[in-house]
């Protein structure tokens, strides 16, 4: 039985048919015509792409030396399940994530020794000042939040990260268009030219971070990136003195999918930035091959601030190395609607809502 070869239109994705009158392939949906040989080459290029190859060596971290963990304890929160590590002299009376005052204590076990640590550069005073600065010049913030708000907890905590290194080889195809318009006395004409752009190349990644704690919100941690790994040092337990350390509950193997997503997205974004001179650029398909993929285990410094207002808890985070500060704030609804009405002239409600969303995110 013979097999019918079908081609999709590079413009709209519709199935293309052969037109005997013009001796060309024609899309019945957008009326675009294609030369048969050109279309065949286009189709072969797309079909010859290799599947992604995203494999890693996830042997990160080290075994603890004998007696190295004798003075280290694990504190487990009954409320949110968070686990933090510190020395036995730490009076851990509340959870840095949810503020729950009940924390059970046990011996450290089942955790690898980190390869690296970035020591804290900024102290608790800097975190408090950053919080107050975060509240300033927020027109839609309830005034009483700033006046009545008090910080329940400010804790310095080392957050576990899996750091992924790799070399990436990528082959990416893009559907592109150039549009030309002109007019005469009777008509206005538009000509759209379609192109297949191809980018092939190599790019390397160092220390792509993936948060190893489910207790720590991923969006919060990614918002305070980047950390400067050039200031990382080999891990020593002395760096934990006076601070807490989150015990990872997502290992390196379980973090691979997130690492793949970050590497693939970054690779495609870097390649897309080189496709210039077109009105539209749409990725058609891509193939990303990873080699020399390795993972390491590191602790990164973060200041966590818990605060309560109107019965609700708010969590803020500051990069303990760079000072970058993030956290959501409540909104004064009355002030919002007054501000909305003041902007309503000439602006659609949808646009104002978009501005509001961007203001608070």
- Rg, Cα atoms, Å: 28 Å
Strand content: 35-45%
Quaternary: single chain
The class by helix and strand makeup works out as alpha+beta
What is the ordering of alpha helices and beta strands? Answer: EEEHEEEEHHEEHEEHEEEHH
Tell me the span between the first and last alpha carbons.
Answer: 59 Å
Calculate the mean pLDDT score and round it.
78
Number of domains: 2
Number of strands: 14
State the shape.
elongated
| Model regions low in confidence, pLDDT < 50 over at least 5 residues | none
Q: Provide a count of the helices.
A: 7
Give an overview of the whole structure.
This protein has helices at residues 36-47, 124-135, 143-148, 218-223, 256-272, 333-343, 349-359, and strands at residues 17-19, 24-26, 33-34, 72-77, 83-87, 103-107, 116-117, 150-183, 188-211, 233-234, 244-246, 280-309, 312-319, 325-327. It has seven helices and 14 strands. The protein has 361 residues and is an alpha+beta fold. 21% of the residues lie in helices and 36% in strands. A hairpin with a 6-residue loop joins β2 (24-26) and β3. The strands form two sheets. Strands 4, 5, 6, 7, 8, 9, 10, 11, 12, 13 and 14 form an eleven-stranded mixed β-sheet that branches. A three-stranded antiparallel β-sheet has the order 1-2-3. The chain has two domains: 1-48, no CATH class; 51-60 and 114-134 and 150-328, no CATH class. The N and C termini lie far apart (59 Å). It is elongated and about 85 Å long.
Short structural summary:
This protein has helices at residues 36-47, 124-135, 143-148, 218-223, 256-272, 333-343, 349-359; strands at residues 17-19, 24-26, 33-34, 72-77, 83-87, 103-107, 116-117, 150-183, 188-211, 233-234, 244-246, 280-309, 312-319, 325-327. With 361 residues, the chain is of the alpha+beta class.
């Amino acid at each position: 039985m013979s097999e019918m070869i079908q081609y999709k239109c590079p413009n709209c994705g519709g199935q293309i048919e052969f037109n005997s009158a013009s001796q060309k392939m024609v899309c019945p949906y957008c009326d675009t015509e294609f030369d048969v040989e050109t279309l065949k080459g286009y189709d072969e290029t797309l079909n010859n792409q290799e599947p992604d190859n995203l494999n890693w060596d996830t042997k990160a971290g080290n075994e603890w030396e004998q007696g190295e963990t004798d003075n280290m304890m694990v504190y487990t929160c009954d409320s949110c399940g968070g686990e933090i590590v510190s020395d036995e002299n730490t009076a851990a009376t509340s959870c840095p994530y949810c503020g729950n005052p009940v924390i059970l204590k046990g011996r450290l076990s089942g955790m690898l020794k980190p390869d690296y640590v970035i020591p804290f550069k900024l102290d608790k005073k800097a975190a408090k000042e950053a919080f107050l600065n975060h509240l300033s010049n927020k027109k839609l913030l309830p005034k009483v939040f700033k006046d009545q708000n008090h910080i329940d907890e400010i804790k310095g905590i080392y957050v576990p990260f899996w750091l992924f290194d790799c070399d990436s080889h990528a082959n990416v195809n893009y559907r592109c268009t150039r549009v030309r318009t002109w007019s005469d006395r009777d008509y206005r004409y538009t000509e759209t030219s379609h192109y297949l752009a191809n980018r092939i190349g190599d790019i390397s990644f160092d220390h792509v971070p993936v948060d190893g704690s489910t207790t720590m919100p991923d969006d919060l941690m990614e918002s305070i990136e980047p950390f400067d790994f050039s200031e990382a040092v080999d891990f020593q337990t002395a760096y934990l003195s006076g601070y807490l350390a989150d015990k990872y509950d997502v290992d390196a193997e379980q973090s691979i999918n997130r690492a793949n997503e970050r590497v693939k997205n970054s690779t495609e974004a870097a390649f897309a930035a080189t496709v210039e001179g077109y009105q539209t650029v749409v990725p058609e398909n891509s193939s990303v091959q990873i080699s020399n993929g390795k993972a390491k285990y590191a602790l990164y410094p973060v200041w966590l601030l818990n605060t309560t207002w109107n019965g609700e808890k708010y969590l803020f985070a500051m990069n303990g190395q760079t000072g970058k500060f993030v956290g959501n704030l409540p909104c004064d609804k009355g002030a919002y609607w007054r501000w909305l009405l003041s902007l309503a002239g000439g602006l659609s409600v949808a646009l104002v809502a978009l501005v509001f969303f961007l203001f608070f995110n």
